[in-house]
## 1
Amino acid sequence: MLDKLNSHSKEFRERYGPWALVAGASEGLGAAYAEALARRGLDLILVARRGELLQALAARLDAKYAINVRSLPLDLSQSEAAGQITRETQADEVGLLVYNAAFSAVGRFLDHPMEDHLREVDTNVRTPLGLVNTFGQRMLAAGHGGIILMSSLSAFQGSAYISTYSATKAFNIVLAEGLWEEWRRSGVDVLACIAGAIRTPNYLASSPKRSGCIADATLKPESVVAEALAALGHRPTVIPGRLNRLSSFVMRRLLSRQAAIRIMGNVLRGMYIHEGPK
Ligand SMILES: NC(=O)c1ccc[n+]([C@@H]2O[C@H](COP(=O)([O-])OP(=O)(O)OC[C@H]3O[C@@H](n4cnc5c(N)ncnc54)[C@H](OP(=O)(O)O)[C@@H]3O)[C@@H](O)[C@H]2O)c1
């Protein structure tokens, strides 16, 4: 059993190692990705804004799994972020990119200044696109690698009260699908992980009220990571969680698009717009 696990980790490291870069790694889902990859023997470059959290995670994973871990504290919403990461990783053979960081301006569209919408575009579209470009080139040259882009069920249709966020997450799904087809014969696997609610500090801090919706089944970060890593190399998208797959089937295949948009809007209004519809 141990031998089987070891040989699986060895195969994983050969295909997606030796280094993995996790963008948005300081807590929650990003930290769970880091731990799962450390368990498979990959060395890690951890990126997020809070350097002290990255240092603590790096020390813990290094002690537990005897891997190399480097922290790269920076703000992924900045236009130079992808360029800085490109330069700082010039000498590292990064075989796996996980883009997990995101910014979401929750609430009525016009209640947010334009800077918030642009920050969503920068964090969720511009920087991951730059990193996909950098690491895609390097992985294709090496003949192996993998890229995981985090997306959301809210991206399957327009989602009121998170309209810009859901549009940026739709970009990630479509980008991953296109590159999956374009690169899969070159040994580079691309995956969009399309998540429903996950019990991360970020999600819990947004204090959503219970939605009463069929998809209201929050998952643990570890379960999402396990399903994403299992899907990598097998298909272009994964929806973690059976209830989420079921609700997505109903929303996308059984209902009209307009009905899906209205249902999603009602759910999000119930979760985030406390004084009722305007
Ligand atoms: N949670 C959910 O219910 C849910 C549902 C659907 C999809 N998703 C997707 O899953 C991913 C993770 O979700 P989450 O936010 O709940 O969880 P998370 O993984 O717990 O936290 C986000 C991570 O990204 C980092 N980050 C955020 N903005 C950053 C920035 N500008 N620069 C550098 N690092 C940044 C944060 O660290 P610092 O604060 O230290 O920078 C943190 O480590 C996102 O892509 C999200 O769209 C989540």
## 2
Amino acid sequence: MRVNDDVHVLELPMLRDGQTFILNLSLVLDPEGGPTLVDAGLPGQEEAIAAALAEAGVAVRDLGRIVLTHQDIDHVGSLHGLARQSCARVLAGAVEAPFIDGRARPRFARPELLEQRPEFRAVIERLQPTPVDEELQDGSRLDLAGGTRVVFTPGHTPGHICLFLERTGTLVAGDALTASEGRLNGPNPGATMDMDAAGRSVGRLAELDVRAVVCYHGGVVADDASGQLRRVAQELAT
Ligand SMILES: [Zn+2]
């Protein structure tokens, strides 16, 4: 799905507890630096991602960069395969990088979680750590789609980042926000480590001049995106 000249959203189906959910990966086009993929689905979704990329006219081998918003398995799952099939540079926030490159155990692979949710074990066993080529900080700038700013948005995980594409006012929100049928909501409380920090992060996002938000869970919010973002920030602050 095309959001604007710079951004396409790739909708990937994911099965959980017998229900189908859609993961919304962002593809950012850039004629000079090549296409950038933001987040990389679950383990084993390389082919589904390749098919979705092809629909947008992009081959995996053409990817210039892959950016990870955070360490969760539905965001980094197919990173290893995609990075190997392309020459893409892998970029992630400095706080999250150790959980992606194998220096630290990601939160979803902690033994106490696996005890509660043993069905995760098979998925996690398929995950391969992947080196991160560039660690991003709050305010880091990427030469992408006319200028892209990294916004540090801790809360869902300790080092979650969002990307703000200045030319189109597109916010790639990862899991810092969710959406349902065009309505913007806060992050999923059941999956968010620190809701107070997450609320403060949304407050920072609400200061940006946002025209469209892409939520990994919930898709695109384009109707009064800025107003909705301020509403969610207010709801989370009270
Ligand atoms: Zn997440």
